[in-house]
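REQUEST FORM: STRUCTURE PREDICTION
Request ID: SP-0412
Submitted by: Lab K.M.
Chain count: 1
Length (residues): 224
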Amino acid sequence: MAKTYSLKAEDRKRTGTGVLKRMRREGFIPSVVYGGGSENRNVKVDSKEFRDMIVQSASANILVDLELEGGARQLAFVKDLQHDPLSGTILHADFLAVNEDTEITAQLPVVFTGEAKGVKLGGQLEQMLYNIEIKCLPKDLPETILGEVSDLAVGDVLNVGGLQWPEGVSPTLAEDVVVALVAKTRVALSEASGEGGPGGEEGGADGGAEGGDTKEDAGQGAAE
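STATUS: Completed
RESULT:
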C-alpha cells in the first residue's frame, strides 16, 4: 500500500496575486484544505518538503497526514496540483480532507512485469494506458497498478480486467478497455509462418516464375 507522509501546514491569512508570489519566493506553496464537512482552510506548506515528498512517490496522488496549527492533525489526499507552464514549478496544492471511510479516486501508473513471449518472437509491446484511474478507501491506496505480460503472444492484448487489482481497489474504466498489446511486426510474422527457411525461399521463387512474368520474360515478349 502507498505510504502516508507527514507534512506541516501553516495557516495563511494573506491573499492576492502579489502576496502569493512573495509567499512562493519565501519558500512556501500556497495551498487549501477542503472537504470533510469543514470550511475551506487556507494553508501554506514548505516547498522543499513537498517536492521531496512528490519525488519519493510513484504518483502525485498521495495521502498526507497534515500537521495543522494548534496541534490538530488531518488526513488528506493530494487532489490537484497547479504548475507553472514554463518552469514546471508547483504553484498551488489542493488537499482533500478524508477519513478512513472516504472513498477516493486517484490516477496511478500502470507498471508491467515480465517479458511478453510475443516480444521474444519479434513482436512489439505497445502500452496504450500509462496511468489509470482507480477508486478505493485511503487504507487500500496502492502506489502502482501491476500488469503481468509474460503470457502475451503476438496479437494478444491486456485489458483493464486483466491487471492485478489489490483487494479493495477497483478501476473506473470498463474491464474490456485495452491497456497494452503485442503488435505484429515483419519479424514476428516471419517467425510465425516459418518464412526465411530454404523451403520458404524456394516456394517464393517458384511462385514468382509460375504466377507472373519476370522482368526477363517481359523483355523477351517485347522483342518478339
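NOTES: The chain has six helices and 13 strands.
Reviewed by: T.R.
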